[in-house]
Write a structure and sequence with these properties.
Heat Shock Protein 90, about 10% strand, 6 strands
Length: about 475
């Protein structure tokens, strides 16, 4: 749905929100990767390069790690040996990281890396020095570089060379085999295979014809299975890397718990700041006006009988005070979920919000995922309200564009994007306690992302991206 709430003669922003493919295009619209036998052949060059370089890299890593590590162990009784052992662990980390990079280059999905940066690095030299000794990932990387990778690499490299040689040699043998002298040759593979397949039949074939045909058939079989073999060998390295070089699940859970704690803290801070701001606004605005109105009404009551003209003048002022107080209360009530949001949904509520803006606003709403969860609708409304208020107060804009849309799939997650673009002076930043601090805290509390693009001179583009679980998926 797209609704233009700006009068036809009102200026509009000269920049549209950057709803690029990275933020709006669903993965269902992206080209799907090829599958099947053809896709295996497409990855053969990268997998062959990965496999053929595996053993040389593993042997170099083994020689370097063994030399440094065991030299350090021999000198461990003196302090200098500790530095050498630590150096060996960092070398092992480098070779392990190289293995993960090579697997990604070969087309395998990325492996989650361990979190190498710890708080211990800021707690003194010796604690930083001994950090690798208490980090299990360093020992696993060392085990991978000293034992696991050399053994596995020798096996996979040998199979790669042998399979490729048989495949290429077999399909091209009819070209070059005629130039190889066969004097004194006693064993012909074609005769051995025929005798095994047809024992006692005594099949007599001309080996000069049967041998090249047999080699060609074997070469074709090996060539057809070459992509499968390369994929299997690469997956073997990938499985080992994920088990030995990847991050532990407990680490991912710890990071998620920390993020949830930070999000909860940000949400609490945002709510507390909103309540304090609302309390201050009510105290400084409507409360003072109501006190003044009460005093005016008391004065009117005293003057009504003996000075009706003065009382009439005070009545006019009291009416103006009441109207201004009502306007302030309406403005403050925008901090609460309006009834229109609950009754008619987010799109209509945003249209109503834009109609009250002192700056003309163009509203574009595209909610393709059906009804949204009530908390997400409410927070999207509040964020849009704060962004519009900031743009109207501080940007000096003559036109604003508000665009709200949903995107995502079950695999990538569902997101709602709130974009506000104005043609003002620009220069918007995250300043604590001012401007965009409120929307930023609210977005963080929802585990979302706030993007700000506001060069000096404008235009300003601000996007809030909020993750959510659809009602159907959440069982609502």
């Amino acid at each position: 749905m797209s609704t233009d709430t700006v009068p036809t003669d009102a200026p509009t922003p000269n920049v549209s929100p950057p709803m690029t493919n990275e933020t709006t295009t669903s993965t269902t619209d992206a080209p799907r990767p090829r599958r099947g036998y053809g896709a295996l052949w497409a990855s053969v060059p990268r997998e062959f390069a990965f496999l053929i370089l595996t053993m040389p890299i593993a042997i170099v890593g083994l020689a370097l790690l063994a030399s440094v590590f065991f030299t350090g162990l021999g000198l461990i009784l003196i302090v200098f040996g500790i530095f050498i052992v630590v150096a060996a662990m960092f070398i092992a980390r480098g070779f392990g990281t190289l293995e993960l990079v090579r697997l990604e280059w070969a087309g395998r999905p990325p492996v989650r890396r361990p979190a190498w940066d710890h708080a211990d690095r800021n707690q003194g030299f010796w604690r930083t020095m001994f950090a690798p000794f208490i980090d299990g990932h360093y020992w696993l990387y060392l085990l991978h570089g000293l034992i696991i990778n050399p053994i596995v690499s020798i096996i996979t490299w040998s199979i790669t060379v042998a399979w490729t040689s048989v495949a290429l040699g077999g399909v091209t043998g009819w070209i070059w085999e005629r130039y190889i002298p066969n004097e004194g040759r006693q064993v012909w593979l074609s005769e051995v295979v025929l005798d095994w397949l047809l024992p006692g039949e005594g099949v007599d074939l001309d080996v000069s014809v049967s041998e090249p045909i047999f080699h060609f058939i074997v070469g074709v079989i090996f060539l057809l299975t070459l992509p499968l073999v390369f994929r299997g060998l690469t997956m073997l390295h990938d499985v080992i890397a994920r088990g030995v070089l990847g991050a532990w699940r407990s680490e991912a859970l710890a990071v998620e718990v920390a993020q949830l704690s930070a999000s909860r803290g940000a949400a609490v801070q945002a709510e507390d700041a909103s309540l304090r701001r609302l309390e201050r606004d009510i105290h400084d605005g409507p409360q003072q006006r109501l006190v003044r109105l009460q005093m005016d009404l008391a004065t009117i009551e005293r003057r009504l009988e003996h000075d009706p003209d003065s009382a009439r003048t005070l009545l006019v002022e009291a009416r103006d005070q009441a109207r201004e107080t009502l306007d302030e209360l309406r403005a403050l009530s925008r901090g609460f979920a309006p009834p229109i949001l609950q009754d008619r949904g987010l799109a209509v509520a945003l249209e109503s919000l834009a109609s009250r803006s002192p700056v003309p606003v163009i509203v574009e709403v595209e909610l393709t995922d059906g009804p949204l969860p009530a908390p997400i609708e409410r927070n999207a409304y509040f964020i849009a309200a704060e962004l519009l208020t900031n743009a109207a107060k501080h940007s000096g804009a003559t036109g604003i564009r508000l665009r709200v849309g949903t995107r995502g799939t079950a695999e990538t997650g569902h997101w709602i994007d709130v974009w506000v673009t104005d043609n003002g002076r620009g220069g918007a930043t995250r300043t604590p306690g001012h401007g965009l601090a409120g929307p930023d805290e609210r977005v963080q509390g929802l585990r979302g992302i706030l993007v700000i693009d506001s060069p000096v001179g404008g235009p300003t583009v601000i996007g809030a991206h909020l993750p959510y679980v659809p009602l159907a998926a959440s069982g609502a």
